[in-house]
């Protein structure tokens, strides 16, 4: 029925412009690239004509245009590169976009700055998704200079920091329904995220230990702040708190599916928090701190609990068995699949196209 509905509406010619740091999808780290890949593949499944402009080491079923390998591939081959290399890679990729710009009904950019200047008079036929916080000075300056740039926020919380002139809508992230399956849970808890003060793995360890539960932590050490792991996390590790490093989807399934809960003790205005819906896809409830998008993702008493302190988190763990894991998985399927994400974006694409056509663009 869904395929028939999509067939009744003409397919769109869509360009997805990925970041240049990692391939799309990423081999490990790279939440933005994962979202871009999942969106691209879901749009292809819907019958749209999609072009992915992304590093050459990317993998996609869409038409693929590339100007270079990803920064991570260059570093793997050459070692550390000069500071200007990321900007050079982005310039080359945007030059490629400029060559093909008129081929698309809509251009969806997942970067933050330079693409706005490249779009020119096609800016009305574009959509930008910023996968980071919007309350910092560089973004404020950017939006001040490009008030006509349509931007889709990834949460209402993120949208509050977006100038009204730029707001084109809100689309929550989604992941393929088949990527994870509901697990049986267990006594231990899980943490997945960068080892950084924004994600607070140290808090997760303290909460798990206070609750008398073992914890496994996954995620790479933040290259921009390695001392945080050395000074704040490593001293807390032990037989009941094990750091397993970065994990792929198979390991993530085991980690989340066997956990009683995911601890999400963020200490920054998280614009979405992809790991929360990955946990839900495994039927695993989420105990999340009340910051950023958390209230839009976690349904208290249904898919987890929202807390403000370590003490509240310990209390939430004491009642985690009141959460129905089958219901957690069901709510994921109802709210956070890649298909739903793609449908929401197509709605925004068609709105932008109609507005631009009405303006003669």
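^ structure tokens above, recovered residues below v
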């Amino acid at each position: 029925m869904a395929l028939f509905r999509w067939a009744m509406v003409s397919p769109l010619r869509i360009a997805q412009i990925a970041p240049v740091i990692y391939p799309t999808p990423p081999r490990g780290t790279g939440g933005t690239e994962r979202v871009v890949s999942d969106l691209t593949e879901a749009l292809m499944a819907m019958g749209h004509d999609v072009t992915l402009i992304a590093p050459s080491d990317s993998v996609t079923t869409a038409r693929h245009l590339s100007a270079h390998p990803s920064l991570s591939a260059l570093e793997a081959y050459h070692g550390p590169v000069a500071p200007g290399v990321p900007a050079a890679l982005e310039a080359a990729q945007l030059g490629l976009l400029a060559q093909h710009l008129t081929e698309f009904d809509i251009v969806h950019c997942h970067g933050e700055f330079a693409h706005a200047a490249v779009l020119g008079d096609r800016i009305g036929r574009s959509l930008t998704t910023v996968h980071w916080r919007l309350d910092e000075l560089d973004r404020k300056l950017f939006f001040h200079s490009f008030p006509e740039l349509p931007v889709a926020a990834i949460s209402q919380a993120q949208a509050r920091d977006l100038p009204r002139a730029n707001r084109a809508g809100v689309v929550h992230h989604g992941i393929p329904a088949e990527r994870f399956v509901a697990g049986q849970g267990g006594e231990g808890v899980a943490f997945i995220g960068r080892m950084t003060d924004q994600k607070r793995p140290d808090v997760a360890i303290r909460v798990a230990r206070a609750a008398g539960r073992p914890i496994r932590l996954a995620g790479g050490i933040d290259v921009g702040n390695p001392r945080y792991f050395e000074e704040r996390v490593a001293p807390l590790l032990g037989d009941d708190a094990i750091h397993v490093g970065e994990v792929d989807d198979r390991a993530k399934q085991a980690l989340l599916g066997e956990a009683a809960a995911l601890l999400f003790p963020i200490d920054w205005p998280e614009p979405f928090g992809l790991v929360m819906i990955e946990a839900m896809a495994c039927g695993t409830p989420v105990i999340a701190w009340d910051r950023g998008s958390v209230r839009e993702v976690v349904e208290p008493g249904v898919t987890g609990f929202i807390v403000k302190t370590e003490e509240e988190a310990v209390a939430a763990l004491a009642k985690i068995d009141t959460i129905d894991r089958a219901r957690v998985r069901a709510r994921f399927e109802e709210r956070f699949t890649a298909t739903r994400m793609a449908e929401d974006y197509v709605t925004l694409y068609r709105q932008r196209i109609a507005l631009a056509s009405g303006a003669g663009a």
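The first strand starts at residue 13 and ends at 17.
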